[in-house]
Amino acid sequence: MAIDVVSFRPYSGIMSDTIDTPDFAASTLRYDAAARRIEEEICKGKPAAGGRLLSERDLSRVLGVSRVTVRRALGALKARGVVASDESRGWFVANAALTERNLLRSFTEFSRLRGLVPSSRVLSRHCRMAQIAEAEIFGLSEGEQVFEVSRLRLMALEPIAIETSRVPLRLCPGLVEADLGKGSLHSTLSAAGCGPVRADYALTAANADAEQAQLLGVACGSALLSAEAIARDARNRVVEMSSSLFRADRYVFSTTLRSS
Predict the structure, then answer these.
(1) CA–CA separation, 220 and 213 (whole Å)
(2) Are 187 and 165 a contacting pair, CB within 8 Å?
(3) For a FRET experiment, which of 14, 228, 229, 248 has its CA 20 to 30 Å from that of 72?
(4) Does the predicted TM-score (pTM) go above 0.70?
(5) pLDDT in tens, 112-143
């Protein structure tokens, strides 16, 4: 089963007080497409977590769909924890989880798009000889080194993930001196001419051990999402291998599946 991203014409004003209705070719959209458009704006931080969305009537006008379709779209997003509602406030962005579409973005970009301040605490960093499996994946010769850094990743000072990244040292020697507590690893790689442009990404379930639970501020045994990624640059070189543990109560990975 292949993974694909369904894209739509860009539009503006969906979450603002000023409505700018685009000229859609089609008069109606399926509710899942409407939901995707609303979610895309939320992922851009429009509005931020806790912020109020436009009314169903206004969303109907902006999206060019019926209020029934809008209501179904919002209901689907609510079921996934993206939005919430109450009688006095209407619909608003939920605080419960951070939803990520299947686009390659660094943690720093992902945070800032949601209006949240990213930060990191470096847990360990060192250079070492590549292991056999790493050398094979990176295409390294015997004895070549990799740079490895483990960080606790935070959004608005809240711990979200524990991330370990490995990079061939010869591709980016500057990582040895880079401030990865404040700076972005992917930005440093891009400055060295080897920024990631695509990645193979695998998610599995895990449970927090005592050390992980303490770092993430959750109970021991809490559900985590374990992600393994192999990132490549524009020249198809493997430039990063990463392993991440996300809090399952604060992180949702969303994708679109198609049959062929």
Answers:
(1) 5
(2) no
(3) 248
(4) no
(5) 666 667 789 999 999 999 999 999 999 999 88
Comparing C-alpha atoms, which of 118, 111, 53, 59 is closest to residue 82?
A: 53
| Separation of alpha carbons 172 and 182, rounded Å | 18
**Closest of 74, 17, 69, 20 to residue 46, by C-alpha:** 17
Q: What is d(CA 219, CA 95) in angstroms, rounded to the nearest whole number? A: 20
Amino acid at the residue 136? E
The answer for residues whose C-beta is within 8 angstroms of residue 218's C-beta and 6 or more apart is: 208, 247, 249
For the chain, report the end-to-end CA distance as a whole number of angstroms: 6
In whole angstroms, how large is the CA radius of gyration of the chain?
20
Q: Locate 211 and state its tokens.
A: 């050390």
Distances from the Cα of 244 to the Cα of 8, 50, 67, 149, 228, angstroms:
30, 27, 40, 12, 7
**What is the identity of the amino acid at 161?**
A
